[in-house]
Amino acid sequence: MQAWSSLVKKEFRVGVPVFLLAVILYIVALLIVGITGYRFGYTMDAIGIMSLFWGAGHFFFIAVYMLYSLGVERKRLHLWLHNPMHAGGLLTAKLVTATAYLIISLLLVSITAYIGGLNFIEMPEGTWFKLGMLAFIHIVLASIDFSVYIILAYCIFLFLERYMASFLSGTVVFIGSWLFIYLFFWLFGQSEVYMAITEWGSIDLGYVAQALNFDINTREFAASLQGTETQIYIGYYVTELVTVSIIFFIASWLLDKKVEV
Amino acid sequence: MIEFKHVTKRYMSKTALRDANLKLDQGKIIGLVGLNGAGKSTAMKLIAGLVTPTKGSIEIDGEKVTRRIASKVSYLSELDEYYAFYTVQQTIDFFATQFKDFNKQKAEEIRAYMNLDTNTKVKHLSKGNRGRLKIILTLSREVPVLLMDEPLSGLDPLVRDSIVKGLITFVDTEKQTVLLSTHQIMEVEMILDEVLAIKDGEIVDHRNVEDLRYDEQQGILEWMSAIYE
Q1: Where are the domains of chain A?
Q2: How far is CA A98 from CA A64, A142, B198, in A?
Q3: Which residue of B has its CA nearest to A2?
Q4: Staple partner for B48: which of A68, A74, A120, B75, CB 3.0–4.6 Å?
Q5: Hey, are the CB atoms on B68 and A77 less than 8 Å from each other?
Q6: Looking at residue B130, which CATH number applies to its domain?
Q7: Which positions in chain B touch A6 (Cβ < 8 Å)?
Q8: What does the angle CA A25 – CA A26 – CA A32 come to, to the nearest 5 degrees?
Q9: How would you list the strands of the sheet with B2-11, edge to edge?
Q10: Model confidence over B217-227: pLDDT tens digits?
């Protein structure tokens, strides 16, 4: 455990550039949007809207982080892989670090989105909290989920480098990823089998906002939330958990047994 | 003991090692010699479990080699890449957490012997000092097998001398087997027990250095010349 926690500390150092870049870019975007909004008299509204979009963009945070972090290790695979720890341990150290950075960054954005959003979205405090928590948790979960697919793609890329040039390996993985997305998410994701294994254990969330409507003209600006009565299925979360666990296991196995230095 | 059983390693169309059979006994310092591209680094990586044989198998003390053989093998790469944001001390501390067998006291002794400043960041180290750091990290582990791929490459004579002396001082020759690849034959000849020659991916000879010296009145360089000419 001490070896793994020390690895996590190292990963925090490795990942600092991604985190700082995310925060700096956000501050720059805040300044640009804030200044532009100020000219038209809608500073906080503009900041709120931009923060909502920026928060949603955090879906990609861990995937980008993992690509950077794995790219750093690729230059020193002899160092990273020369370790008695299971590859799953090496990868989870990165995932945990990435999730921690994501939560910090998303908290920062969420607070700004809330402060800005107060200006143009009227909702009871309890609804704000419910929607905020739902969005926060789902962005974190979706970001982790997506990143596991990216980890697998990167491990396949490293594996294929044994047999072909890096560019070709990258191209094969890129095309393969799109094929996988089409087959798995498009064809299988819309099949009756998929619905049968995911649509069970429904939980009623009540009214949940699902869209932001804008009414903008030269003289005024108005925004409102559009929502519906929403249900989620436990089956969907269980299926996704099982799927990403399998994907993560395959990625770890590839890193342990097939990736070479 | 390290044992190669009919090991072949191919990279796409290139054969780096061909049907290698080999037994290396415990408690020896063994030189691995050969021209560039002969297969020395591949042999090292195979023992470290960082590449897998295309055919055959490798065992260390009866255990099949996989990546996780890192618990028994300390590997010094020919590459200089470490985590640049760490200082020398932080790098040593990090290694100490990753390997249960890492002896921090020994690391401190070797560091003091190598005269390496603990507070210097790795990114600010000269090539010579990075070479010294690699030696500290490799020799501080109390494992049966030490693999050193070109530890003297690109270093000035003073650093090379300190590394060779460090090997004599800090390797436990009773318990540890050292496999060392180098082009600086003359500088390591005096510490080698055995020498192993690789040519075009084949192990062409494996000799005891003392036998070579006394029975055949040959130094390693003359022996190598005979093989490669």
Answers
A1: 2-258
A2: 9, 13, 45
A3: B97
A4: B75
A5: no
A6: 3.40.50.300
A7: 94, 97-98
A8: 90
A9: B14-24, B2-11, B55-60, B63-64
A10: 888 888 888 88
pLDDT tens digit string along A25-66?
999 999 999 999 888 888 888 888 899 999 999 999 999 999
Q: Distance (Å) from the C-alpha of residue B216 to the closest C-alpha of chain A?
A: 39
Residue of A nearest to B72 (CA): A84
* Minimum distance, in Å, between the CA of residue B46 and any CA atom of chain A: 10
B45 CB neighbours in chain A (<8 A) are 78, 260-261
What pLDDT score does A219 carry? 62
Looking at the structure of chain B, the number of domains it has is 1
> What pLDDT, on the 0 to 100 scale, is given for residue B81?
87
Domain assignment of residue B97, given as a range:
2-228
B51 contacts in A (CB within 8 Å)? 260-261
